[in-house]
Amino acid sequence: RRAEERAAAAAPVLDATGRHVLVAANVGSRPEAEAAVANGADGVGLLRTELLFLDRAELPTEDEQTAQLVDLLSVVGDRPVVVRTLDVGADKLLPALHLDPIKNGPLGQRGLRFGLAHLDILRTQIRAILRAAAGRKHLSVLAPMVTFAWEARTFRRLIADVSSELEDEGVAYGRPHEIGVMVEVPAAALAADEICAEVDFLSVGSNDLTQYVMAAERTNEAVASLYQPDHTALWRLYELLVASARAAGRRVAVCGEIAGDPAAAVRLVELGIDELSMAPASIPAVKAALRAALGTG
Ligand code: PEP
Ligand code: MG
């Protein structure tokens, strides 16, 4: 019976027009990848690499990062995977980096901002990701905390650069299936057309986007009641974002917590969101809600 439930959860979700709505998992470790597969994930919509860096006094080497990724990806089989580059700063102050809570705080140098200021760390990670992509058809790469189109352009260039470097060295690697950026900053959502020109897809980080739209820190208990992912302001922003992405012919995913809420998931898909990525345990309920709402079983 449990096997039946899992088989049902693993089936793809189609909307009335036959569009495949991808219901994927957020994972940061091998056990989470196993839970994703067990819960019927269509893929991994967000692989959070910073968890591979936690609890360490030193940064992992390129070889260590490659091995960790290969091990985690082996669990996922040939499902599509989106690997996010290091998202440090704000709520993710990795011990090995000795970050400053103000300089690297929520409005500071975090995510891709940190990566572009520490190119050695970012390049090493991209080398590891592309090496782990060898022989994979559907591994995409995603940058966190992007504000400007030029940041997305620089990220794409960096990936092209690292690819030719690996090529010249004769090291086995894979080119990313797609290159995307996260929409977590209100400016990026409002000027999504400019960013779409530089990337293949967008992935909305609703956790951070909520924090920045509501001006309420996601981990600050004192303003927890102001942190409202379901606020009208956010829905208006999603609507605008989908319209911009549609006009540019780009796919939009949502990978924040809101994607794992069945009612919100239905609303996001009805708005035109193409992919949802969530905690593995939320997948069966979200798939069931989507099937019921979309009238596709
Ligand atoms: C988000 O901000 O919504 C997101 C998915 O990224 P993280 O939670 O890792 O910051
Ligand atoms: Mg985020």
UniProtKB/TrEMBL annotation:
Main location as per UniProt: cytoplasm
Metal-binding as UniProt keyword: yes
Locations listed in the record: Cytoplasm
Alphabetical keyword list: Cytoplasm, Kinase, Magnesium, Metal-binding, Phosphotransferase system, Signal, Sugar transport, Transferase, Transport
Gene Ontology molecular function: phosphoenolpyruvate-protein phosphotransferase activity
Claim: Transferase is one of the keywords in the record: yes
Similarity field: Belongs to the PEP-utilizing enzyme family.
Functional note: Component of the dihydroxyacetone kinase complex, which is responsible for the phosphoenolpyruvate (PEP)-dependent phosphorylation of dihydroxyacetone. DhaM serves as the phosphoryl donor. Is phosphorylated by phosphoenolpyruvate in an EI- and HPr-dependent reaction, and a phosphorelay system on histidine residues finally leads to phosphoryl transfer to DhaL and dihydroxyacetone.
Assembly notes: Homodimer. The dihydroxyacetone kinase complex is composed of a homodimer of DhaM, a homodimer of DhaK and the subunit DhaL.
Protein name stated in the entry: Phosphocarrier protein HPr
Gene name for this UniProt entry: ptsP
